[in-house]
Amino acid sequence: MKKAVVFDLDGTLSDSIASIKYCGDRAVEPFGYGPFSVEQYKYFVGDGAANLVKRMLAAAGDTALVHFDEAFSLYKKYFAVDCMYQVKPYDGIRELLEGLKAAGLKICVLSNKPHDQTIDVIETLFGKGYFDIILGQREGSPIKPDPHGVFEIMDRLGVTPEEVLYLGDTATDMKTGKSAGAFTVGALWGFRQREELEEAAADAIISHPLELMEYILK
Asked: Rounded to whole angstroms, how far apart are CA atoms 81 and 14?
């Protein structure tokens, strides 16, 4: 039986693409770039804020990233204030979390979103102390797909890879979980398509959060 579930945040627990677009579009507007579509943002995200901004600039034609420092600074400034803009949990997430907690599992978050904003989003949506461990992007710690964060969670909880299930919506998430030896589950309600999750060798793919429960006892 699994003892802990590690969740990605954006595109897995929270529908947050509107907040990322809201801040991203404003960050590149001074340079005459954007706005970008929601679909574009679904592929800009996933590998941290710096890579998000780099992908936005490249899509706008600034492949040399001439405006990166200024745009990244603006993005961080706006996101620090508006990281909760139109953010909400996906349907079924609250019920899933309650089911996991009732079954005695530890629930954790590992995100490439900046650490302070990761905590802000989680505590605003679910309350302070609801999750056992929350880790966002922190200075000095490698971002996903490096499995460092999963190993840190395992160490803090005292669990083995076989006792951990990792849920995310991108290839980055599947690579992260698999590198840590966890059972990986791809979420189809997030930002990416089934093909990406299959190519990343997800152990299972689900279309609704509550489907996760059938893998908890395996």
From this structure: 17
pLDDT tens column, 74-126: 999 999 999 999 999 999 999 999 999 999 999 999 999 999 999 999 999 99
> In 95-142, at which residue ranges do the beta strands (DSSP E only) sit?
106-114, 133-137
Q: pLDDT, tens digit, for every residue of 158-217?
A: 999 999 999 999 999 999 999 999 999 999 999 999 999 999 999 999 999 999 999 997
For residues 102 and 85, give the distance between their C-alpha atoms in angstroms, rounded to a whole number. Answer: 30
- Going by DSSP bridges, is the β-strand pair 88-89/183-187 parallel, antiparallel, or unpaired? unpaired
Q: Which residues contact 121 (CB under 8 A, 6 or more apart)?
A: 9, 14, 16, 83, 84, 87, 113
Distance of alpha carbon 171 from alpha carbon 99, whole angstroms: 26
For residue 10, what is the DSSP state? B
Instruction: Please give the DSSP secondary-structure letter assigned to residue 91.
Output: T
Q: For residue 214, with 0-12 CB atoms within 10 Å meaning exposed, 13-18 middle and 19 or more buried, which class applies? A: exposed
Decide the pairing of beta strands 183-187 and 164-168: parallel
The number of C-alpha atoms within 13 Å of 213 and in the hemisphere containing its C-beta is: 16
DSSP 3-state of 208: coil
Residues contacting 107, CB < 8 A, separation 6+ = 4, 5, 7, 97, 100, 101, 130, 131, 132
